[in-house]
Amino acid sequence: xxxxxxxxxxxxxxxxxxxxxxxxxxxxxxxxxxxxxxxxxxxxxxxxxxxxxxxxxxxxxxxxxxxxxxxxxxxxxxxxxxxxxxxxxxxxxxxxxxxxxxxxxxxxxxxxxxxxxxxxxxxxxxxxxxxxxxxxxxxxxxxxxxxxxxxxxxxxxxxxxxxxxxxxxxxxxxxxxxxxxxxxxxxxxxxxxxxxxxxxxxxxxxxxxxxxxxxxxxxxxxxxxxxxxxxxxxxxxxxxxxxxxxxxxxxxxxxxxxxxxxxxxxxx
Length: 268
Description:
This protein has helices at 2-34, 54-59, 64-90, 95-107, 111-121, 123-140, 147-170, 173-202, 210-266. By secondary structure, the protein is an all-alpha fold. It folds into two domains: 2-90 and 171-251; 95-169. α3 (64-90) runs antiparallel to α8 (173-202), α5 packs antiparallel against α6 and α8 (173-202) runs antiparallel to α9 (210-266). It is rod-shaped. Residues 1-11 have low confidence and may be disordered.
């Protein structure tokens, strides 16, 4: 149990370190790459970007851009981290095939081979099933417990093992869930700021300030694109990873029921 808690804390520490680093990277890229004077007419960031220069165009998105860049980098980073974690949690090979093999071993009253299958499979699902099998083996030879007590003990062991594995699987998913609406709102904020700048340019007495008008429109459109794009990616990855976790949970529940039913049928 201690090792599981330490692992959970490591993921929390991972998020606490990565987010400030990603923000710093986004700010540096915004200021020194996108804000490079060579990207603008007359080598002056106050002027319009050079024709076809997308870095300068994005820079004109204003102060909201580095924040949205950070959010986009967070989506990419935590999606990669979740993919690695869930791939490891899955173990080796198909989970469904693994569950079938375990059930077959139990049907043949070969619990040791079933435990060996868990060792070969590895991952969170295998860890939970192995915990249930070890408790199955332990209570099978116990004379201090009746049948109902043994069944309850197996169920509790599986539930406790599941409760230790689930936080590892779900860690950092809340970040992706939070980013989905947050990115949209920040993009909308940048859009509003850009439109304010554009209308201010139009309200100038005499000829409108063309540079300010173009900058305002760029700010509005760029922030809208960043916000919607980041939100869409966060929703897609969150749904994908949630679905994978649900499938793992179902496999765990299915295996748990099989273990309990097997024990009931073989211990009258």
